[in-house]
Amino acid sequence: MTQEVPPFDAAVVLGAKVYPDGTPSPALLRRIEKAEELWRRGRVGHLLLSGGVGEPPFREACVMRDILQARGLPGPILLTEETSRNTLDNARFCARILAEQGWRRVLLVTDDFHLPRALYAFRRFGIAARPCAVRSPAPWRLPFLLACLREAVAFPVYLWRVERARRKG
Q1: How many C-beta atoms lie closer than 10 Å to residue 92's C-beta?
Q2: How many domains does the chain have?
Q3: Domain residues for 26?
Q4: Alpha helix positions (H), the chain
Q5: Residue 1: inside a domain
Q6: Cα(13)–Cα(68) distance, integer angstroms
Q7: Would strands 130-134 and 78-81 be described as parallel, antiparallel, or unpaired?
Q8: Which end of the chain is more exposed for a tag (fewer CB within 10 A), N or C?
């Protein structure tokens, strides 16, 4: 019997807020649930969990890993990138890990409103990631609208920041 190869080598799961006591925010829980679903459905072979914001041991990537392991996902499929502090760092640091692992078929998991900016950053760092949006729970409510407004302001700034970072190497 041969084991079927997943369509994607890995899903890169971007971090979100972790509260000071280590509790994941609703956004982080949504991303964790999407990552778990992708793996259980056989869509990805590995999960690269990215996010270093927070104090040890409550870094975003570590919180994601611990929750996924508690839900029964095997440790060897979970890799962490624990030093990034923003989307630009996520792209830059994950690019190195993906290259080291030889993973080219990649999904990028983040909230729907964040996905355009995140995809831009990842693609500019050589990662031909496919989008995997986590749907926001309450579109057209104030928190969602504020997040969209933040992204509308952040995207032009990121155009400049990403290009500047790429030139620096």
Answers
A1: 21
A2: 1
A3: 8-168
A4: 26-40, 60-70, 87-101, 115-124, 142-168
A5: no
A6: 12
A7: unpaired
A8: N
